[in-house]
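Inverse folding, one chain.
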């Protein structure tokens, strides 16, 4: 008989995960929302749509403050949740770093308590990874059988009546994407080798994400698009919103990764976000000067990664406090993706924009100039 894990063993396993899924990371909030939920729950859902909204956008339940997971237009989140109540699939579209995957994960965590049924779209994704494949040793030995069947995350979600996530769907070849058409239309998965069909249970749906800016993107067919409700997630509208997002996520990463450094100051976050927004938009925040944009996207997610890496540098090779040199090292790698083009763009930005910003920017300017020499 298999031994049950003790609570201490389970906690240790969770703590040792490099990246804990949302349902574990925010387990206390989810449990409290479920406990206090007085509204009707759709079939297959752990909580009502109203409670899902509170979990995503933040609020209060009982004596517990629920942290916002998505900072932006609440109406978009309401539309996304309402879509998943129906039999329509959901497609989140936007530029890199607009929290598509983040929102997708938290929706699945809140609704089903399982955000791990994921298909990761790449150029190498095959139709079998979307539908099913076989244990070929068993297949050769005894022919097609339920025991030899290897179910995809979508297959398992159909059986369970839960949500499957399809990340970066437009990175898959068009013919692979179209394998989803029959699944979303008929809500059945055919298994001709076993002469049977698997009907989707109530509660099944798919949340897909797609980037609009990355290279290597394959357009979705009109037939597939019609099976989804599309929601376009915009980049943060204001610098204040973006600073709030970056600060919150960096603090979460610092706690999860044990970076051994102080979180960056509000001034450091503001400078990084300012640089990213200006290079991304092609002009300074006041609109008075044009700026050349580098080849990279410079998304909010990259700003978060840059500051987390700066903390790692400060914690392991510095005093534990982020310096301008730590930030400059990260900026160099984020901005200069293409050595020829981006090196010139970054040099011009340092010379024409940062140099004119006065004494408060001087230490960061000098550090960036040293790295860009």
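Residues assigned per position:
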């Amino acid at each position: 008989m298999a031994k049950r894990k003790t609570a201490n063993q389970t906690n240790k396993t969770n703590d040792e995960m490099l990246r804990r899924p949302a349902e574990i990371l925010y387990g206390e909030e989810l449990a409290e929302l479920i406990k206090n939920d007085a509204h009707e729950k759709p079939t297959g859902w752990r909580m009502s749509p109203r409670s899902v909204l509170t979990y995503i956008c933040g609020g209060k339940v009982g004596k517990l403050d629920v942290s916002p997971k998505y900072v932006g237009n609440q109406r978009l989140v309401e539309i996304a949740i309402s879509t998943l109540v129906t039999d329509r699939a959901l497609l989140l579209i936007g530029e890199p770093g607009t929290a598509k995957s983040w929102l997708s994960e938290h929706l699945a965590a809140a609704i089903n308590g399982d955000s791990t049924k994921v298909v990761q779209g790449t150029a190498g994704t095959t139709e079998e990874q979307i539908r099913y494949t076989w244990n070929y040793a068993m297949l050769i030995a005894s022919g097609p059988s339920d025991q030899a069947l290897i179910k995809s995350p979508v297959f398992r979600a159909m059986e369970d009546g839960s949500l499957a996530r399809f990340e970066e769907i437009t990175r898959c070849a068009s013919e692979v994407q179209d394998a989803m058409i029959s699944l979303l239309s008929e809500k059945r998965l055919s298994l001709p080798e076993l002469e049977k069909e698997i009907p989707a249970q109530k509660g099944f749906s798919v949340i897909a994400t797609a980037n609009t800016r990355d290279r290597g993107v394959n357009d979705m067919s009109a037939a597939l698009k019609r099976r989804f409700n599309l929601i376009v997630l915009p980049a943060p509208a204001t610098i204040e919103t973006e600073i709030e997002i970056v600060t919150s996520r960096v603090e979460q990463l610092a706690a999860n990764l044990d970076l051994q450094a102080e979180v960056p100051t509000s001034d450091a976050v503001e400078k990084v976000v300012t640089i990213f927004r200006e290079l991304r938009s092609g002009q300074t925040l006041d609109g008075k000067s044009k700026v050349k944009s580098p080849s990279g996207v410079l998304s909010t997610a990259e700003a978060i990664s840059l500051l987390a890496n700066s903390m790692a540098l400060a914690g392991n090779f510095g005093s534990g406090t982020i310096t301008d040199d730590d930030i400059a090292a990260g900026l160099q790698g984020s901005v200069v993706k293409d050595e020829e083009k981006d090196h010139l763009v970054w040099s011009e930005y340092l010379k024409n924009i940062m140099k004119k910003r006065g004494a408060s920017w001087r230490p960061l300017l000098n550090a960036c100039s040293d790295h860009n020499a």
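Residues 239-371 form one domain. The mean pLDDT is 91.
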